[in-house]
Structures are given as C-alpha cells and as structure tokens.
Amino acid sequence: MLRSRNAIRLNGIDAEELSLRELRDAVPALDTPSSARFPVQGAVIQRRAGTARHDAVAWGYAGAANSLGVDIVENCEVLAIETRWSAPKADALSAIAAPPRALPS
C-alpha cells in the first residue's frame, strides 16, 4: 500500500494512507473482518480526485464545439491543425470525401 501511495506522490498527486480504523470510520458499511481470505488492511485516498464518464466528456466537448460553428467529421484522420488569428483549421485526408456532419443539438 505504501508503494502505491509513494508512486502516486512521486507523480505530484497528493495522496494519503488510511489505517484500517480510519477506513472503518470513513466507510462504516465496508466489510473488514480479519478472517477474510484477502483482508482489508487500509487504503490510499486522494481527496481531490474525481471521476468522469469519458463518453459524456467527449459529447460535451463536441456539443460545445458544434455551438461554436465547428463541423465534426467522424472517422476522419486529422493530419495537422493550423491556427491563424485564433481560428484553427484542420487538414484531413477524408474531409474531402465525407461531407461535414454536425452533431444533433
């Protein structure tokens, strides 16, 4: 457990170790008998962590881009992104063959 915490901390992420007592206090419903085949001995926690559904994040970005006038072309390899005067322009191989398709709002 210390190895995991140390690896996390070496990457600049604040993590702390919880003893079994601290873990039981934090999560009373957790089953922690010492007779279990793989008994819980403690935990490592990163209190600022969060979770996100990656598909929801992608659709959120796509929806915001669409509202800004971006055409989204699926299954199209992006070869380069060129920016001039804050207006990005993407260069793609199949963009010519496939017409741009906007996401439904």
Secondary structure layout plus pairing:
Layout: H1 2-10, E1 16-19, H2 20-26, E2 42-45, H3 54-67, E3 78-84, E4 87-92
Antiparallel strand pairs: 1-2, 3-4
Strand order of the largest sheet: 1-2
Provide the β-strand percentage band. 15-25%
Through-space gap between termini: 46 Å
Distinct helical segment count: 3
Percent helix, as a range, is 25-40%
Number of strands: 4
Q: Which structural class do the helices and strands define?
A: alpha+beta
Taken from the alpha-carbon principal axes, the silhouette is elongated
* Main beta-sheet annotation: 2 strands, antiparallel
* Mean pLDDT over the full residue set: 79
Radius of gyration: 24 Å
Q: Tally the structural domains.
A: 2
**Sequence stretches where pLDDT stays below 50 over 5 or more residues:** 93-99
What assembly state would you assign to the polypeptide chains in this entry? single chain
Order of secondary-structure elements: HEHEHEE
Describe the protein in words.
The chain has helices at 2-10, 20-26, 54-67; strands at residues 16-19, 42-45, 78-84, 87-92. By secondary structure, it is α+β, with helices and mostly antiparallel strands. It folds into two domains: 2-45, no CATH class; 54-92, no CATH class. The strands form two sheets. The protein has a two-stranded antiparallel ribbon. A two-stranded antiparallel sheet has the order 3-4. The chain is elongated. The model is unreliable at 93-99 (pLDDT under 50).
